[in-house]
User: Which sequence fits this backbone?
């Protein structure tokens, strides 16, 4: 029998995946020992739900706390011949236990399977999307799965990463060598246990058919995982792990590895913390402790891996333990590293120039940097704030636009520069104001006096940042990064009371800094001469005045990615069909999201389609369109100001809502138009657009009252008066 030990403290949503994955195992000779630590998120309901299939017995951890204590209690209670650990935020694939047991034989003590990392819940992993994001393929491609040392231990660049998860252990191995988890150790209690288990096992075998899925956490603020603590917080545990692991086994490969990892820590992690770390321990206790531990390192183990010669020399000085000499060597080590970075990394060089030169120059009180959609166009709130300021203040301010694409046309006297150029660093650091509609990179040095007016770029339908349980994003530290970036916002514009509410939770942002001004980009939608302006735009685009326009503006999909900030798009709209049905009456404007880099070949549709993906300003496209088709994009909140028909083409609704994002609104009830899944339905609706409009009139009005209630054509004025006094 296999005893599966699950420790649980928080988050029932995670635990449900874990227990569900046990319940669905095709190997049935199991027991689940669920150790409940604390009194939050009581798992009794889930135990009831899964108790028959997962054969769960629950124990409460009394008088102590922590994963180590939980696992020890589990080991004590386990009746099985084999042990498996499952963290409550992880899960297994359905065949995993059978594959592990089938691989076990009489003289084997440990069988390991594959350990995969993911940001996804079980539903998403099963659909096969997980692997693509983790960048793990590359690391694993260079490792021979059948070499247990490389796969289970050696692949980790940090000693702390070694884990007992994903293996099946013969219980007698724990008993024979009296192996338990150190309950005093808050972090990394796995590490020395792993070294002892692997170091003492008679035989170790692997099976690629067993997959253990580790879920990474990307919500450090709301739901931290143990591994997200800072290095400072975990140092006592790390010392304890090294103390207990060093020399605990006669297995040379494992012993060498531990010493090497300690050396690597001394050279790679310690010097900058000793020099610049705020906490005094880096200069005192931690320094002493490392010197003591370093005595166990045999310099021979340092060769031939990823340490540079200067690192090895530094470690050797450390082993000798003369503090003055270590500090002296450390100085030159850090200087050499900085030099190397300066010459190989342009951004680093510009950053240094900024810190030493640009930031010493006086701040320009009347300089304003404008950026819309990472410099990919000139649109949105920044454009309309800029135009208002040009009109009201003219040369009183110097306006600087960030442009990342050729052909962006901007009216009025202004300067411009490319993102990430030296000029960019210069302007960002000398200008008092930044007006931007997206987050700004943290790697740009910023002065305390800078005022950042963040305009954001839409009322949210799809859940954002801290309101999302799982982030299917390219950046592993997404939530942490967003948190830091949004602290840099001095003002945030909101279009309606609903956004004001949501922004407080999704960005964890203070209400006092939110300006519920309405959107400057929606000002033109209230212009008295809207019709004349629209006619001019149509003419500029070469569209006959007698043609009616349908704007198709879908959003991007988190799971269709090339690279960070670059997404694919597969068109589900049947343009051929639309052309046949409506070619005489309409022109279709096709506008993909700015994060989508795919471009569609529409040459076969002749004059029926107009590619407006690179058209700078979507507000102008709203002005000329008689109808909008969209999906989950926030474009409809803005378009609704025009009170023109909106149709929702949500061909992938289940995936988008249930797996990728989730919504803030009840889309069946709250949207200002009907939802369609198929091209057939959509075509019928366009044919009957007057009827559809009449049917949705009341819903539309309610929507308008809720979301368009602030916009009135004067939002730019309100914003400018507040921010620029
Ligand atoms: N947009 C565009 N063309 C599209 C889609 C969007 O120009 N086909 C622009 C619009 O200005 C829109 C903004 O990008 O308001 C945001 O687009 P979303 O599709 O909503 O996506 P995202 O960039 O993820 O913004 O809170 C805002 C959103 O929910 C998040």
Assistant:
């Amino acid at each position: 029998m296999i005893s599966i030990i699950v420790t649980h403290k928080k988050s029932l949503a995670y635990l449900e995946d874990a227990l569900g994955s046990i319940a669905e195992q095709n190997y049935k000779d199991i027991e689940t020992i669920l150790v409940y630590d604390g009194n939050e998120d009581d798992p009794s309901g889930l135990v009831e739900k899964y108790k028959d299939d997962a054969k769960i017995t629950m124990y409460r951890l009394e008088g102590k706390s922590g994963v180590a204590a939980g696992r020890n209690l589990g080991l004590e209670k386990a009746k099985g011949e084999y042990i498996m650990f499952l963290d409550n935020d992880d899960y297994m694939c359905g065949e995993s236990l059978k594959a592990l047991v089938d691989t076990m034989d009489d003289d084997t003590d440990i069988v390991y399977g594959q350990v995969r990392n993911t940001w996804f819940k079980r539903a998403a992993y099963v659909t096969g999307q997980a692997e693509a994001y983790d960048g793990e393929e590359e690391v694993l491609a260079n490792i021979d799965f059948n070499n247990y040392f490389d796969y289970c231990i050696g692949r980790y660049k940090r000693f702390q990463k070694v884990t007992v998860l994903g293996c099946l252990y013969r219980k007698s191995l724990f008993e024979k060598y009296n192996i338990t988890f150190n309950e005093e150790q808050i972090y990394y209690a796995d590490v020395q246990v792993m070294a002892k288990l692997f170091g003492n096992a008679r035989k170790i075998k692997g099976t690629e058919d067993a997959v253990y899925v580790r879920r990474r956490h990307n919500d450090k603020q709301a739901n931290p995982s143990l591994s997200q603590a800072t290095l400072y917080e975990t140092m006592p545990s790390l010392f304890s792990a090294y103390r207990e692991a060093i020399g605990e086994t006669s297995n040379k490969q494992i012993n060498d590895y531990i010493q090497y990892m300690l050396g690597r820590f001394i050279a790679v992690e310690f010097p900058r913390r000793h020099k610049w770390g705020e906490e005094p321990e880096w200069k005192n206790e931690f320094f002493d402790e490392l010197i003591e531990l370093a005595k166990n390192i045999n310099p021979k183990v340092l060769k031939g891996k990823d340490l540079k010669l200067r690192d090895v020399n530094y470690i050797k000085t450390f082993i000798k333990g003369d503090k003055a000499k270590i500090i002296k060597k450390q100085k030159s080590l850090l200087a050499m590293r900085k030099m190397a970075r300066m010459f190989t990394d342009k951004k680093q060089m510009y950053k240094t120039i900024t810190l030493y030169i640009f930031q010493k120059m006086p701040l320009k009180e009347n300089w304003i940097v404008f950026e819309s959609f990472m410099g990919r166009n000139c649109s949105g709130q920044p454009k309309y704030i800029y135009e208002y300021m040009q009109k009201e203040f003219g040369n009183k301010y110097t306006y600087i636009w960030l442009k990342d694409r050729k052909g962006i046309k901007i009216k009025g006297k202004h300067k411009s520069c490319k993102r990430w150029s030296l000029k960019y660093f210069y302007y960002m650091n000398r200008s008092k104001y930044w007006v931007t509609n997206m987050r700004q990179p943290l790697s740009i040095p910023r002065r305390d006096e800078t005022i950042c007016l963040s305009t954001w770029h839409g009322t949210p339908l799809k859940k954002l940042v801290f309101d999302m349980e799982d982030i299917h994003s390219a950046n592993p530290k997404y939530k942490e990064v967003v948190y830091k970036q949004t602290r840099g916002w001095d003002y945030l514009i909101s279009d309606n009371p609903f956004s004001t509410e949501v922004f407080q939770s999704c960005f964890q942002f203070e209400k006092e800094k939110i300006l519920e001004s309405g959107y400057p980009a929606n000002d033109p939608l209230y212009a008295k001469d809207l019709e004349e302006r629209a006619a001019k735009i149509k003419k500029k685009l070469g569209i006959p005045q007698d043609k009616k326009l349908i704007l198709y503006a879908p959003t991007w999909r988190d799971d269709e990615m090339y690279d960070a900030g670059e997404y694919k798009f597969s068109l589900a709209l049947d343009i051929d069909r639309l052309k046949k049905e409506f070619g005489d009456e309409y022109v279709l404007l096709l506008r993909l999201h700015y994060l989508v880099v795919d471009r569609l070949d529409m040459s076969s549709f002749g004059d029926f389609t107009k590619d407006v993906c690179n058209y700078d300003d979507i507000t102008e496209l709203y002005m000329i369109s008689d109808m909008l088709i969209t999906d989950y994009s926030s474009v409809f909140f803005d378009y609704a100001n025009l009170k023109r028909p909106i149709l929702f083409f949500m061909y992938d609704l289940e995936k988008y809502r249930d797996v990728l994002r989730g919504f803030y609104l009840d889309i069946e009830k709250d949207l200002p138009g009907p939802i369609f899944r198929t091209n057939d339905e959509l075509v019928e609706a366009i044919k009957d657009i007057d009827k559809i409009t009449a049917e949705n009139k009341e819903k539309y009005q309610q929507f308008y009252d809720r979301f368009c209630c602030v916009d009135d054509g004067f939002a730019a004025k309100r914003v400018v008066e507040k921010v620029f006094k």
